[in-house]
Design brief:
With about 70 residues, this protein is an all-beta fold. It is built from no helices and five strands. The chain has one domain.
Length: about 70
């Protein structure tokens, strides 16, 4: 997983899948979009105007992951 923030446009992107993937963008609202594969797997989440949705640029952010099984070797 990779989380990036662009302060120039106040956009947050959470990428859940590594590598190149063909996606379909599903607009959930004016500010939030999901990038999904053809079979419905979520590849990434884009949040525009992120500060309006609780993201505070310049503050330490915490990511908490629950019930995630370790990757098998």
């Amino acid at each position: 997983m990779k989380i990036t923030y662009d302060p120039e446009v106040d956009a947050l992107y959470i990428r859940l899948v590594e590598g190149p993937v063909e996606v379909i963008t599903r607009q959930l609202s004016d500010d939030i979009a999901l990038n999904c594969t053809g079979d419905g797997r979520i590849v990434g989440i884009e949040i525009l105007d992120a500060s309006d949705h609780g993201f505070q640029a310049g503050h330490e952010q915490t990511v908490v992951v629950h019930n995630l099984a370790p990757a098998s070797a």
